[in-house]
Each structure stands twice: as structure tokens, then as C-alpha cells.
Specification:
The chain has about 300 residues and is α/β, with parallel strands linked by helices. The protein has two domains: about 210 residues, Aminopeptidase; about 70 residues, N-terminal domain of TfIIb. The protein contains five helices and 15 strands. A ten-stranded mixed beta sheet has the order 3-4-2-5-8-6-7-9-14-13. A three-stranded antiparallel beta sheet has the order 10-11-12, with no helix packed on it. Strands 1-15 form a two-stranded parallel sheet. It binds zinc ion (ZN).
Length: about 300
């Protein structure tokens, strides 16, 4: 594959607390702020707490999920007196870190998240820079979407991805999860410095999970209340192939609901924040992406 070149990653934001109760990112960013981290080698770093009122309240968000507010459509909607807080904050962040799609935008936003699901360390991305050199212990979730429709905070930068680590209950800090995330952040900053110094990263095949669909909990059609929970045999088995006949839910009267679709990989199983989104788990296909060799564009 042909070599792909990018200009240096000079301006980078590490963002935490986009969801206010996902505490690994909140405390990693706070610690970077406390240590006045501003420059690491060739990379200027801005550690930013994204949703302060939600962090103070230890909630995912105050009025609206901030990490769904960064589509071109929402960013171009004029604000009014009744606009939710998070939409105002999205516009503010777009001015600060973007504007999305403009030459002034940050070179990279790396956004830090936790999940209550047993997903380990995942990179969620729709660009092709960092993952080329990821160690095999990381999982990569590839979001096949256009930049304009991408709704996450990292989409305002030229390149962006989220680091998602779990399991960790929201509002709780676990040192093992904190360390996994911190290592991934350090690895990223290290990669950027090597890239800026002219290292050519060889491409190759990268195994990625691409979301196919979401599955909701069984619900009472009249009240919408759950009638079943995630089955114990599915719980904590993120990224393990789900086959026809495998148990997925257990009803409160004791019946097992079995899976009936095609073979796919479940992830975000029983994520706390997704009950309101009517998602019990996502299902993904495993695919191979071919990553080109990547190098610094010399001007
Ligand atoms: Zn999150």
C-alpha cells in the first residue's frame, strides 16, 4: 500500500469528563492539569475537563448527552435561550478545539471514557493514524461514519479517537482501570512524538470490530419496563462470539431468551448509561482493515 503522509501532530487535547461520572479520565486530566502538563517533546498538550457541571454532579450529563452533540447539523444549529447546557458547551468546545473540519482545528483530540461493561481497553476511532502500531492487547472499534455525522467530541479535531476502558462502575475509581487508561494515554503521546520525529510506521492488517446493530432489553410493551436482565452467561462476555441458541436474557419469571440472529460479537453488554438509550448490547462484525504505512509529511 502507498505511504500516507500527515503533517506533524503539534496541538493535541486530552479530554476527560465528557461524561461526568466516568472518573478515570476525569482524574487523569486533573492530574495532568495539577502537574501543568503543557508540552511533551514536540507535542503541545491541552488537558481539558469537558463537562464540569456534570463532573460536579457526578452524572453522565446535565440535560443532554454531550458526546452526541458534535454533528455538523447540531453545531450549525443556532443557540437559543432554551438550548440545553450541553449543546452550548458543544458550540464552545467547537470554537476552542475546532472549528470542526477547519484548518485551525486541533491536530488530535483523545477523549477518555469508562464503561461498566467488561470491555478491557478499546480504541474507538474513525481515522487511521494511531491504531497502526497498537499492541495486540488493545481492541479497536471502528466507527464507519462520515466526519460530518460523527457526534463525538473528538470529531472536532483533524484526527480523533476515544479510549474506552472497563469494567468500572460510573462514579467509581479503580486503580487497575486508571492504570490501563494512563498507559494508553502515555502510549499515544509517545507515538505522536515518534511520528513527529520522522518514524515511519509500517502498515498492515488491523483487526477491528464494526458495529452492526443494537439489541434492546425485553420490555413490557405498555410500560416499557424491563421484563428480563442480561443472562449470566452473556454478562461480562464482551467480544466473545455470540452464536444462535446462546442465552442472552433471563426473564424475571425465570425463562431464558436465546439469541436467534447471525453470529456476531457483543460489546457494551449491560452498559449502565445505555438503559435510557434502549440498548442492552451492541453487536459487531470482526473485520480486517488494511492500514497503509504512515509517515510525516515534509513541507
Ligand atoms: Zn463515556
Amino acid at each position: 500500500m502507498d505511504l500516507v503522509s500527515y503533517p506533524a501532530f503539534s496541538r493535541v487535547a486530552i479530554t476527560g469528563g465528557t461524561h461526568g461520572n466516568e472518573l478515570s479520565g476525569v482524574y487523569i486530566v486533573r492530574e495532568m492539569q495539577r502537574q501543568n502538563v503543557a508540552q511533551v517533546g514536540s507535542v503541545s498538550i491541552s488537558p481539558i475537563l469537558v463537562n464540569l457541571p456534570a463532573i460536579d454532579a457526578c452524572r453522565r450529563y446535565i440535560e443532554k448527552d454531550l458526546n452526541r452533540c458534535f454533528t455538523d447539523a447540531l453545531l450549525s444549529t443556532p443557540l437559543t435561550d432554551s438550548s440545553p447546557y450541553e449543546l452550548r458547551r458543544a458550540h464552545e468546545l467547537n470554537s476552542q478545539l475546532g472549528p470542526k473540519g477547519s484548518p485551525q482545528a486541533m491536530d488530535l483530540v483523545c477523549d477518555l471514557h469508562n464503561t461498566t461493561s467488561n470491555m478491557g481497553l478499546c480504541f474507538i476511532f474513525d481515522f487511521d493514524c494511531i491504531p497502526s502500531t497498537l499492541p495486540n492487547t488493545y481492541r479497536v472499534i471502528y466507527v464507519d461514519t462520515s466526519k460530518s455525522e460523527s457526534y463525538s467530541v473528538d470529531s472536532v479535531a483533524k484526527h480523533g479517537f476515544a479510549i474506552e476502558v472497563g469494567p468500572q462502575p460510573h462514579g467509581v475509581l479503580r486503580a487497575d482501570i486508571y492504570n490501563m487508561m494512563k498507559e494508553a494515554v502515555d502510549h499515544t503521546v509517545d507515538w505522536l512524538n515518534k511520528f513527529n520525529a520522522g518514524t515511519i510506521f509500517e502498515g498492515g492488517n488491523l483487526e477491528v470490530f464494526v458495529k452492526e446493530k443494537s439489541v434492546d432489553y425485553p420490555r413490557n410493551p405498555e410500560t416499557s419496563e424491563l421484563t428480563a436482565a442480561i443472562h449470566p452467561q452473556l454478562q461480562d462476555n464482551d467480544f466473545k462470539l455470540l452464536q444462535r441458541g446462546d442465552p442472552i436474557f433471563m426473564s424475571f419469571t425465570g425463562e431464558t431468551v436465546n439469541y436467534e440472529g447471525e453470529e456476531l460479537y457483543p460489546f457494551f453488554i449491560n452498559e449502565c448509561a445505555y438503559y435510557e438509550k434502549k440498548i442492552a448490547f451492541h453487536l459487531a462484525k470482526k473485520k480486517m482493515l488494511t492500514i497503509p504505512p504512515i509517515s510525516l509529511k515534509k513541507d
